[in-house]
Amino acid sequence: MHPDLVALLALQDEDTAVAVLEARRRELDARETALDQERVTAEAAIARARSAAEAEDKKRRELGMKVQEHRALHDRHLAALDVVRKDREATAAMAQIEITRRVLAQEESEMQSLATRIVDLNQTAELEQLSLADLAERQGTQRAEIAAARGEVDAELGTARAQRNQTASRVGRPLLQKYERIRGRENSNALYALRGSACGRCNTAIPLQRRNVMAAGRSVEVCEGCGVLLYASV
Fold this sequence. Notes:
Order of helices and strands: HHHEHEE
Low-confidence stretches: none
Mean pLDDT: 91
Largest sheet: 3 strands, mixed
Number of strands: 3
Radius of gyration: 40 Å
CATH topology of the largest domain: Helix Hairpins
Number of helices: 4
Helix content: over 70%
Shape: rod-shaped
Strand content: under 5%
CATH class of the largest domain: Mainly Alpha
Structural class: mainly alpha
């Protein structure tokens, strides 16, 4: 078997091993990303509750100012009623007092509702904060496990890539370039053994003359059907 082919077969095995390790690395990254998203979601829930509480408190303060104004207006109407002498004026004053009283009652009821919502929202924020603390504690263990596993995978990847590069240096440059171009395009194996008289990947028939050249160990051919590299197994 030609030395280039021996090295190329070893290179493909090592590329497969590297791909497995890289997939494990991506899986660990995905797990950490999921933990990050879980934390972001929890923090967003706290922020929403606090923001809603602040908005309701702002409404309560603004409504409180209106209540003060309407109370003052109510007092003025009461004072005006004490000094009127005519029935028409008294009737008008009583109507103004009743209107102001109803407005005050509505505003005070709304103030009470706002106060209740603010308490509920603050309690929700506190509960979400406690949940976030629990989440952080739980994730602490998971993140430590991920970090340890990532360290192991990175070490293995470093070794595997170094071995892969060393093996690649033993393959002739033209053949290596073909191999890497095909592997990059296919994102899978680039080198297949003949299966009988056909391509081991797509089953396209290979002419006898080309098969003989491969069988003699003098060449690695490109399949005209699917474009992968072909060799004759001994």
